[in-house]
Design a protein that fits this description.
single chain, 497 residues, mainly beta, Tachylectin-2, Chain A, Jelly Rolls, 10-stranded antiparallel β-sheet, binds beta-D-fructofuranose
């Protein structure tokens, strides 16, 4: 009961019982956003993988549904994707509704225990009732056999409108592989990408690959999202991305982006420790046109040890991905979906806040920080460190801000509350490097009971992390050595739970 009250998020999705990791198979159909997820309903640790299921009308409020896909004995249902097969290219549709086809990895635990290589293959299942009930495609599975690669998983399928084909990207150990199909059942190997490019501190998992319009200009690019574990920006699980072009067969990095990954090794979708395995929604209405993303808000370093017992893990807030062009650079930005704004209730506005020492932004009792959005601009930045502190009466605090001497954003949860369940949880300060000295910064921060999602400069740098205070944070303050200047401070109370 206390863990429900203290740690069950107000609006981030969690399964009622048991374990969750990656989001899987997301699509939109007939008014509902569907979300499936790696799920073990019986215990709050990883185990025989099912696909759990939840639906939402607005990407914010989720309703858990019956389990969608069950493992068979030692054959687990690993991560994958789903598409709305509008033209019934698969022939698996039986009625008026377009069939939904799920493509996932079947992982054979007996082979794994036997030390075999061909442990993973790609299977499909289909639904003729918009994703509420499923049939495995027994007669035709696997649709992609294991080619002799131990880590060969997490197929993500998208329709390639330019080349009129289904494209599957999957993670093959240290690279991504591309396949194409006309009917979702027969797949042809096309090419691979990524060996010796980008971050390789761990196994590549859960890719996504799609075409996207560059914001504000008449250009399109292709984005490869490539999760990896370990080797993330701040340790453990992390999400990198690549921007380039695709000719229907081969993915080629855009030239400036290629230079960037040569020098920096990787571009990160999120610098926080708790955004992993995120991929995007299929079939978002064309009139809407958004590329919508959600991640698993945890990290394999400690996910199975976090201090909740009846369930473990939440998803991130759903986000919109966009590509912007800044100078010659293509940057993937991510921001919370606008639907969150529907839940804004009371708002505290402070026109400007200026001074030295520690300044209170919100005193105790003003805002319930377990469901809030904090917005502000920080101006006239000097060579100084600007530290924001969310604190409770227990002396526990979560701090974040800008070090404008060494040029990075930071988040420190070492005094945030319960931390000693894992020595990986708070042993380092999370940093996101900034391109030189900042003059001004724009922050949007989403807070729930156990999570903070920091969107800096409209999603150019993002930090997502979880925390477990012994009582909720009640105050927010800012401090620096030489004075702080904030403008457009607006704290939104969210009416949601
Ligand atoms: C990523 C991952 C995937 C795999 C799944 C198993 O977190 O390791 O590569 O399909 O989890 O649950």
């Amino acid at each position: 009961a206390t863990e429900e009250k203290m740690y069950r998020p107000n609006f981030h999705f969690t399964p009622k019982n048991g374990w969750m990791n990656d989001p899987n198979g997301m699509f939109y159909a007939d008014g509902y956003y569907h979300l499936y997820y790696q799920h073990y309903p019986e215990k709050s640790v990883w185990g025989p993988m099912h696909w759990g299921h939840a639906i939402s009308k607005d990407l914010i409020k989720w309703e858990e549904q019956p389990i969608a896909l069950y493992p068979e004995k030692d054959k687990y249902i690993f991560s994958g994707s789903a598409v709305v097969d509008t033209q019934n290219t698969s022939g698996l549709g039986t009625g008026k509704k377009a069939p939904i086809v799920a493509i996932y990895t079947l992982h054979d635990m007996t082979k794994e225990k036997g030390g075999q290589i061909d442990v993973e293959q790609q299977d499909i299942a289909y639904s003729n009732d918009n994703g509420f009930t499923w049939q495995k495609f027994e007669e035709g599975n696997p649709v992609v056999k294991n080619p002799g690669i131990r880590d060969f998983r997490d197929p993500k399928v998208n329709w390639d409108e330019t080349h009129k084909q289904w494209i599957m990207v999957l993670a093959a150990q240290d690279r991504a592989q591309f396949y194409s199909s006309k009917d979702l059942k027969n797949w042809k190997y096309l090419s691979e990408f990524g060996k010796n490019i980008g971050a390789h501190g761990g196994v590549w998992e859960c890719p996504d690959f799609f075409q996207i319009k560059v914001k504000g200009i008449n250009e399109t690019k292709w984005v490869l999202i490539q999760n990896l574990n370990p080797g993330g920006a701040n340790g453990g699980s992390g999400t990198q991305y690549f921007v380039g072009d695709f000719d229907g067969t081969t993915f080629t990095l855009e030239s400036n982006f290629a230079k960037k990954v040569e020098t920096e090794r990787a571009a990160w979708l999120d610098y926080g420790k708790d955004n992993y395995a995120g991929v995007t929604w299929n079939n978002v209405p064309a009139a809407d046109g958004r590329r919508l993303f959600i991640g698993w808000m945890s990290n394999w370093e400690y996910a199975q040890e976090v201090p909740t017992q009846s369930w473990r893990s939440a998803t991130t807030i759903a986000r919109e991905l966009e590509i912007i062009k800044k100078g010659n650079d293509y940057i993937l930005i991510n921001n919370p979906v606008k639907e969150i704004n529907k839940y804004i209730g009371k708002t505290i506005k402070v026109k400007s806040l200026k001074g030295k020492g520690k300044l209170a932004i919100a005193e105790a009792g003003k805002i319930d920080f377990t469901k809030a959005i904090v917005n502000f601009n920080i101006k006239n930045l000097k060579q100084d460190t600007y530290t924001f502190t969310l604190a409770n009466a227990n002396g526990e605090a979560l701090t974040f801000g800008i070090d404008n001497t060494n040029h990075y954003l930071f988040l420190d949860r070492s005094k945030s509350g319960k931390i000693d369940f894992s020595d990986k949880f708070a042993s380092t300060i999370t940093k996101a490097a900034l391109e030189g000295s900042q003059k001004e910064g724009v922050f949007k921060i989403i807070l729930d009971k156990t999570s903070i999602e920091i969107f800096y400069n409209n999603g150019e740098k993002v930090i997502t992390e979880i925390f477990f205070p012994n009582q909720p944070y009640t105050t927010l303050s800012v401090s620096s050595n030489n004075g702080v200047e904030l403008s457009n401070v607006e704290i939104n109370q969210l009416n949601i739970n």
